[in-house]
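WARN no homologs supplied; continuing
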Amino acid sequence: MKLKKVYLAGLAIIIFSSFSMVYGDATSTADSAASAPQDELRAKIQEKTQQLQEINTQLKETTKNLADTQSQRQTLQRQVTIYQSTINQLTLNIKDDTVSIEKLGLEVDSLNYDLKDIQASIEDKKGAINQLLVEIQKNDYENGNLLTLFLKNKTLAASILETQSLASLRDQLHTDVRHLSELGDLYNSKIEEKSEKISDIELHKSNLSARKSIIANQKEEQQTVLAQTKNKEAAYQKQLKEIQALQDKIEAEIELADMELRQNINPSLLPQSGPNVLLNPVPKAIMSQGYGSTSFAIQTYRGKWHNGIDLAAPVGTEVFSAEDGVVINVANQDRLCPRAAYGKLIVVKHDNGLTTLYGHLSLQVVSIGQKVSRGQLIGYVGKTGWATGPHTHFVVFATQTITPARPGYPEGTKPSSCGPMPVGGDINPLLYVSVKK
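OK structure emitted
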């Protein structure tokens, strides 16, 4: 019995000491709380939530109007309207980022209050456990084993009462230690939640800066189109025909190279298929075109083949790396063949035997040779290159088929009329990633 008591007390001391080391200093983990009381913080958070809802409603309306415009016949006025609508949409996105940053900051302040309250409860519980340990050890010292306890009391009832008291102390110790553990888990979950919100703040800050740059690019493109056509519809239609001819030429080049390389794929060198092998690079998007001989590809492309999937989302939507890897190509093909190829693109080579391409971007935020991690922001959805609407063209190549580039060209490219062209044996991305349809 005494051994059991000593073991129980020792166990509690170990648990108590562990919690003291992990949770003993609140100020080292949590930031100083904001001066505003918690009820004021909640009111401000609710206000920001309402603002975000209003912005979201405006964004939905703007996106719908933009989609309606894009479905119309291609005219110069339509193109100018698309540019302006895209700028309006990005302006709303910037407003959303600004309010989101403010809201997340308030939520972090609120979590700091929660952390202080939990830390105070932890300190109280540690004090209660300490007191229980003192009482149990005192009783163990005074009473020794169970026989000594019965002999020292004058009546059996008194001995039984004291035994029950000791049992209650130990039960309370077990309960308090369990509650301390639960408080520790709650503290950790709040710290994790706070860390996620701080990461979200940084993402919104990145988006804020990026979307301002994208707006500047949209305005520049709009002015370029107006200058090239001299604001005349006939000149614009002539330009469209020239672009269509170039699109056909480039598409044929890409399909010829990819078709040959598809024959060289060795399935044994590929990862086992599954929906989570790769991350959906544009989680906010829907798939607007699938892989292979789609109806659109048969009607539109000379090669009748779509070497990836299209993930449709508004211009300025975040694009993330599908897996850990190294960036092997970052290019803007519009500089050599405007609106005829992948436009602004990124290619990432992964360690699992796959290489991914992200095309038609509005902005790239990585560089060749840079290591990226799964889920890392690498760019933003756009409509550069040959794109009928804003989306990211997502291609999965078998790395084994990526041919060496000639000197001075990025890895995995070959010379083309658009300059360095990423080519490889393409695989259906849906074998490795789950997307919304």
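Confidence is low (pLDDT under 50) at residues 1-35.
OK
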